[in-house]
Amino acid sequence: MIRLDRVTKAFGSVVAVDSVDMEVPAGAVCVLLGPSGCGKTTTMKMINRLIAPSSGKIYIDGRDTSGIDDVQLRRSIGYVIQQIGLFPNKTVEDNIRVVPDLLGWDRKRSRARAAELLRLVNLDPAIFLHRYPKELSGGQQQRVGVARALAADPPVLLMDEPFGAIDPINREVIQDEFMKLQAELKKTVVFVSHDIDEAVKMASHIAIFREGRLIQYDKPDNILAHPLNAFVAEFVGSDRTLKRLRLIKVGDVMLSEPPRVRAEDSLDTAAALMEEHGHISIVMVGPRGRARGVVRLEAARGKKGLVAEHVDKLPGLVNVQDDLRTAVSTMFTHDVTWLACVDDDGFYKGYITQRGITHVLGAAYRDR
Amino acid sequence: MASSLHTVARVSLIAMAFALGAYLQSRGLLTSILRHWGDVVYLTRQHLWLVALSGTLAIVVGIPLGVLMTRQGFERFADIATQLVNLGTTIPTLAILALAMSVLGIGAPPAIFGLFALTLLPIVLNTVAGLRTVPGHLLEAARGMGMAKWQILLRVELPNAAFVILAGIRTALAINVGTAPLAFLIGGGGLGELIFTGIDLMEPGMLLAGAIPTALLAILIDFVIGQCQYWLVPRGVNPLR
Amino acid sequence: MQTINFILANLPIIGQRTVEHISIVGVAIAIAILTGVPIGILITQSKAAADRVLYVASIIMTIPSIALFGLLIPILSLIGQGIGYLPAVIALVLYSQLPIIRNTYTAIANVDPALREAARGMGMTSLQRLLHVEIPIALPVIISGIRNAVVLGIAIGAIATYIGAGGLGTFISRGISQTDIRQLLTGAFAVSLLAIVADYSLLALQRLLTSPGLRN
């Protein structure tokens, strides 16, 4: 969808961007990542020609952008900046309508579009359409900023550290919302960031820049598992394997169809099941299948009675939608090496072990 | 390209000045201007005296007045007082001199009083504005260090407000020097005499003998105050340095 | 007292002089806006140009009004317009340049650069950015500059009576020369009142034209 062909930018004798080749497929979220001054922002700004390349070509959807008039090009690309830049003299509605108006949309259509976009970013149009930027919080303003960028429904969205000016708590929320939005709209997004965690969370592709050069361009998990050189390794952090934990969901690595016992089962049954599977504990479920407690092998072996009399409280739970980082954190909190995995309604779906997790992560290293 | 434009501008300006001079001489104007030289010297001295006296009085009264208006006890009056001072600056300069005359008669005293009143207002406004912009945390730090109120004023507030206060003095003096020629109309003397008489008698020589020194004097005084503003205000609080 | 009687007895002339006064100031301000605002916008492109233009304008402001009149008279008498309306208007146009140019320049130069970038990134041309973003934001300060110029103009307009331009200053000048306190006070109050009314009216206009999103 977006292709950079040996794109270079020099300011006098300083080469800010050195012969960058990359291709961003349609629907991807490509995060340009790197330390200050590495050329990531300059590269992104060459896509909408806020900065003109010194040499090289940029193609959007197959068309060479150098043949398109600057102003027309920018009206077809959404642009979100760190300082948000909502026009203070215009209402939220008028801010969103800027590009549609420039493109000559009729009023009814652009006003309807503004309301629709506000709903998409979780702001009630009835309340927010006629507010002014100064009446909004930072998070709300940037949501409007995103809505504004999407107003004319551009296929490409450029974002320059868009959530940098928002406080860390709201930043998480707005990142999550953006990911939901992107899942629905499937825009081609180029996103500049200096935060590896943000990149790992949001990107489908990460491009690591250093001193104007593109060092590594790959999916997040690959970059974390196989950093190309010492610079990338250091940039992603020495805890990069822990970072990978975020990328994998519990549901994908848990052992499903796990053995289970009911309250009315005997301890013998429990012990037998445990021995059969080689476990030292087993989950007790309720009548409909919800995880209720746990029975230990040492409590069950060679004893008489019902499960219900010897059941312990579950040492922590994890949802199948959670990522492995949450799982590991819960394990550490409760000092256990395994966790029962449940769905949103509490039904026992599987279990996950520490060993299993390290095995999954290690697979990437064993393959190479 | 910019620098050659600059040179062209400079050269044409000088050429125009010469042309003007030559033209004036051709009309005998230069000689007629110089005929009034004795008057010019005398009246300039008078003019400077008017400006100096009224200006100094305005500074001496205006700054303390501005300080007063920002003190804690006066907050209630501060708003009304500021409104009044603002109103005062709207009143046309000639009207102020005329009113001074209606109360104090003719001569130098009403002229000085009128000029004093004119000059006072911008100084008060800027002193208040300057003191208000001193960052609150500086005052807090000073109080925390155990400074007495007047020490805070002298060592923290005034130095920080100095740039704005001097800007106010500069504007005020410009207004003062600009209005001083009118002092002649109420008997206060000064270079205005040559200008107004020159207009009445339709004598361009006399007129220019008054107008040119007045203009040059105004520019010179403004330049001097500008330099004061640059050099006297310490580098830390001086946006120009 | 006597002054009030005087005023009531002479309302027509007072009215006429007021009109004269407003006409001089009005025409001058109109011209000054038409030249000053575009210049103010143009010089935002170059700090060097801005410094020079503001410097020249401020020097003009430093020159006492009567001196400027004095300088204009011999020049304009070459075309037979030495005294009266024309030198008054020209002088006022020149004096109004500084407040208007400086305020326009400062207001537009101080527009948050993030807004300029957002506008450019969205695909606005420079003209569109000026019209939709920069001028609406700068407008309150520009009008404030116009207000200053108007108040200044009314004050100088009073002095213009001395070069035969008429206006409300005539009452003051006659009041001084004829030692007639009634005329003096009439003139002084009339000019002051005009200035105050103009100032507050323009303040109201300034508030009206400020977008609600920009008000404090």
Structural overview:
- The complex is a heterotrimer of chains A (368), B (241) and C (216).
- Chain A contains 17 helices and 17 strands.
- Chain A has helices at 40-47, 70-75, 92-96, 98-103, 107-120, 125-128, 138-150, 168-185, 196-202, 220-225, 230-236, 240-244, 250-253, 267-277, 297-300, 324-334, 354-367; strands at residues 2-11, 14-24, 29-33, 55-60, 63-64, 77-81, 156-160, 188-193, 205-210, 213-218, 255-256, 260-262, 281-285, 291-296, 317-319, 338-342, 348-353.
- In chain A, the strands form four sheets. Chain A has a six-stranded mixed beta sheet, sandwiched between helices.
- The two termini of chain B are 28 Å apart.
- The mean pLDDT of chain B is 83.
- In chain C, α1 crosses α9.
- Chain C has 216 residues and is an all-alpha fold.
- The chains are: A alpha/beta (368), B mainly alpha (241), C mainly alpha (216).
- Chain B binds chain C through residues 2, 29, 87, 89-96, 98-99, 101-102, 174, 177-182, 185-186, 192, 195-196, 198-199, 204, 207-208, 210-212, 214-215, 218-219, 222, and chain C through 48, 59, 61-71, 73-74, 77, 83, 151, 154-159, 162-163, 169, 172-173, 175-176, 181, 184-185, 187-189, 191-192, 195-196, 199.
Class inferred from helices and paired strands of chain C: mainly alpha
Beta-strand share of residues of chain C: under 5%
Number of helices of chain B: 10
The arrangement of helices and strands of chain C along the chain is: HHHHHHHHH
Describe the global form of chain C. elongated
Helix content of chain C: over 70%
Q: Which shape of chain B, going by the Cα principal axes?
A: globular
The mean pLDDT of chain C is: 88
The description of the largest β-sheet of chain B is:
none
Biggest interface, chains and residues, is: B-C, 40 and 42 residues
Strand content of chain B: under 5%
Cα-atom Rg of chain C, whole angstroms?
20 Å
Q: What is the tally of helical segments of chain C?
A: 9
Number of strands of chain C: 0
The helix-strand sequence of chain B is: HHHHHHHHHH
Estimated helix fraction of chain B? over 70%
Major sheet characteristics of chain C: none
Instruction: State the end-to-end distance of chain C.
Output: 45 Å
* Low-pLDDT sequence parts of chain C: none
**Structural class given helices, strands, pairing of chain B?**
mainly alpha
